[in-house]
């Protein structure tokens, strides 16, 4: 005798986005170098540590991301962890296409040539270790080659429920943030 399995309903993209929005994440700008040698970057909160030995991180990018295309070609990137006072950088790099402006964004080339943003809480400079499919995104696993930290005492920039949030529960802003 077989028992029928209960029907499992599919979750819509909107339902999934709403539920995942309840998970507070740090905000980063992931940077690399385009085929033309110019810096590229995108705001990303789909970032996670993977392994301590070897040191690995993952970042998820929309398959149409220009930053993803640059990382594929350059083979390296930097995860720049933003401080609460750097909402302007998050907003700047959340723009689609070539709209992100580098004028006035202080940065320097790191070990791999990828841009390291000045005054961020942490910078993790990586080379591409793996590329994996992830639905409408691509997962890039990077081997961390160099790290830097700064901003002792600075609060992190957090993303929660579609906007920025502060430690302690106070909302910094209800500005919507696009993710990679």
Keywords:
single chain, 180 residues, mainly beta, Pnp Oxidase, Chain A, seven-stranded antiparallel sheet, three-stranded antiparallel sheet, globular
How would you describe the overall organization of this protein?
With 180 residues, the chain is mostly beta strands. The protein has a single domain, classed as Electron Transport, Fmn-binding Protein, Chain A (Pnp Oxidase, Chain A). The protein has three helices and twelve strands, in the order H-E-E-E-E-E-H-E-H-E-E-E-E-E-E. The strands form three sheets. Strands 3-2-6-9-10-5-4 form a seven-stranded antiparallel β-sheet, with helices on both faces. The longest helix has 9 residues. The chain is globular.
Coarse shape: globular
β content, as a range?
35-45%
User: What structural class results from the helix and strand content?
Assistant: mainly beta
The strand line-up of the biggest sheet is: 3-2-6-9-10-5-4
Number of continuous helical runs: 3
Question: Approximately how much helix is present in the residues?
Answer: 10-25%
- CA gyration radius, whole angstroms: 17 Å
What are the low-pLDDT stretches, counting only 5+ consecutive residues below 50? 173-180
**Assigned CATH class:** Mainly Beta
Q: Determine the N-to-C terminus distance.
A: 49 Å
Give the integer mean of the pLDDT values: 88
Order of helices and strands: HEEEEEHEHEEEEEE
CATH superfamily: Electron Transport, Fmn-binding Protein, Chain A
Reported CATH architecture:
Roll
CATH topology: Pnp Oxidase, Chain A
Summed up, the domain count is 1
Number of strands: 12
The main β sheet shows up as: 7 strands, antiparallel
């Amino acid at each position: 005798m077989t028992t029928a399995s209960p029907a499992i309903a599919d979750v819509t993209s909107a339902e999934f986005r709403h539920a995942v929005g309840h998970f507070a994440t740090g905000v980063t700008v992931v940077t690399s170098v385009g085929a033309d040698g110019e810096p590229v970057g995108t705001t990303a909160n789909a970032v996670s540590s993977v392994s301590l030995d070897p040191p690995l991180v993952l970042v998820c990018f929309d398959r149409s991301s220009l930053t993803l295309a640059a990382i594929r070609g350059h083979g390296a990137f930097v995860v720049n962890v933003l401080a609460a006072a750097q909402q302007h950088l998050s907003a700047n790099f959340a723009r689609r296409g070539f709209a992100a402006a580098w004028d006035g964004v202080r940065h320097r080339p790191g070990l791999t040539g990828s841009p390291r943003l000045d005054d961020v809480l942490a910078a993790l400079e990586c080379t591409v270790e793996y590329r994996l499919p992830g639905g409408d995104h691509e997962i890039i696993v990077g081997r961390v080659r160099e790290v830097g930290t700064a901003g002792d005492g600075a609060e992190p920039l957090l993303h929660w429920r579609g906007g920025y949030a502060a430690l302690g529960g106070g909302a910094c802003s209800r500005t919507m943030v696009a993710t990679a």
